[in-house]
Specification:
The protein is of the alpha/beta class. The chain has one domain. Helix content is 52%, strand content 10%. Strands 1-7-6-2-5-3-4 form a 7-stranded mixed sheet, with helices on both faces. Strand 3, helix 8 (179-187) and strand 4 (190-193) form a beta-alpha-beta unit. The protein is globular. One of its GO terms (molecular function) is acyltransferase activity. InterPro entries: Plipid/glycerol_acylTrfase (IPR002123). Residues 125-236 form the Phospholipid/glycerol acyltransferase domain. This is Phospholipid/glycerol acyltransferase domain-containing protein.
């Protein structure tokens, strides 16, 4: 793969496109006479208020969850010490979490934790474009994707602190290999995207249910966050996968609505989130180089969890989130809509000094300190890995320049 992302992950998406598009045909949810609408989505939806206490109790009773907390707090402790501490931790968790009875209670506690995290791991969060949105309206936020947990969490934090409803978050089932992970995500308004489905019929059913659930959420005044493509943009290229937009339209086909009309009715908002510093930049560069040189990259069993933790506790410096214009005049096909959304996401991506430095573009904001910081990062990598780290920070600049150079219609 080249540092500009012309193969590897982008090709990975292309290799699966035929399978995905095969599944994107009209689908109707089969229900028995006794089934309610809520039952249909039970397998993928977040928890409701009445399910919160039981989910919290399952978490507290989960040995892996308790062990994970103890390992994080006491990484060098022995198994014997874990055995001694586990009952004390469970007692403390029950005492603390017994006050949480509803989804809103969960959101309030998450916001408190995020306030502390933002103070200790960022140089502050700014945002723009939110004033154009109606607090009473539900939206389908389609965002670029740099961090597994923090992208939707930080956007939710901005919404919450501006008196707007927080969103339901799309999360791939590849991140939910542990039961406690599923409990945590579904408590925090996450719904499951079944990426593990491989057989055409399974994919058809999974995509149909997902598309139906997204529309159902919007119609019941619940906003949605979903990434613009599967996986993070580890190469800094924020491009929307048209297959995501086609997935949205599966429910539209069932309702016999054209692609353009259905997209216009979803209140799609392209979102650009930019981090001055990516705590996982070195890891991403190493992974992309491994893909290029070895043809594959095998993740460790807990690598995604480790990435989530590093993304949360790592220094991100300044962060900016831009809420784009609502899509109201969609073209008649997914490819053209993807291009239009990419223009918004790229043009509204806030460029920091390190982006200009990595792209070797002159800027008054680039000083010797910025150059030294970039060089310190590069010094930790091999010669083969360095271009991938530079591309991670440079490609937002390069892509913005390409759009700027395009002739206006």
């Amino acid at each position: 793969m080249s540092p500009n992302g012309t193969t590897s992950e982008i090709d990975h998406v292309q290799r699966h496109k035929n399978q995905v598009e095969y599944a994107l045909i009209p689908f109707s949810v089969t229900r028995s006479p006794n089934m309610t609408t809520q039952d249909i989505y039970q397998e993928i939806r977040p928890y409701n208020d009445n399910e919160v206490p039981a989910a919290i109790e399952r978490l507290i009773s989960d040995d892996e969850f308790i062990t994970a907390i103890l390992h994080y707090k006491f990484p060098s402790a022995s198994k014997f010490l874990f055995w001694l501490l586990a009952p004390l931790l469970r007692y403390k968790l029950r005492s603390t979490l017994s006050k949480i009875k509803t989804v809103e209670d969960v959101q309030i506690n998450v916001a408190k934790y995020l306030n502390k995290t933002i103070k200790t791991t960022t140089g502050g969060i700014t945002h723009s474009g939110l004033d154009k949105l109606d607090p009473e309206q539900s939206y389908l936020f389609v965002s670029n994707h740099r961090d597994i947990a923090m992208d939707p969490a930080l956007m939710n934090w901005v919404l919450y602190n501006n008196k707007m409803q927080t969103v339901r978050i799309a999360i791939g089932d590849n991140l939910l290999k542990k039961a406690c992970s599923t409990e945590l995500m579904k408590l925090n308004k996450s719904f499951i995207v079944k990426r593990s489905a491989k057989a055409p019929r399974q994919m058809l059913q999974a995509l149909g249910l997902l598309s139906s659930y997204i529309k159902h959420s919007l119609e019941t005044n619940n906003s949605i966050w979903i990434a613009q493509k599967e996986g993070r943009a580890k190469d800094g290229n924020d491009f929307t996968d048209p297959a995501i937009l086609k997935m949205f339209h599966v429910e539209g086909r069932k309702r016999k609505e054209s692609f353009a009309d259905y997209m216009n009715g979803l209140n799609i908002v392209p979102v650009s989130i930019s981090y001055e510093n990516d705590p996982l930049d070195l890891q991403k560069a190493k992974e992309l180089n491994a893909l290029a040189t070895q043809g594959s990259y095998e993740k460790g069993e807990f690598e995604d969890i480790d990435s989530i933790i590093k993304g949360i506790i790592g220094n991100k410096k300044r962060i900016h989130i831009h809420f784009g214009d609502v899509v109201t005049n969609a073209p008649e096909n997914a490819d053209e809509l993807a291009v239009e959304m990419d223009k918004q996401i790229t043009q509204n991506y806030h460029l920091f000094p390190i982006n200009y430095a990595a792209a070797n573009v002159e800027s008054n904001d680039v000083n010797q300190g910025v150059i030294s910081e970039l060089n310190e990062k590069l010094a930790q990598l091999t010669e083969e890995e360095k271009p991938y780290l530079r591309a991670l920070y440079a490609n937002p600049v390069n892509n913005a320049q390409k759009i700027k150079a395009e002739p206006s219609l």
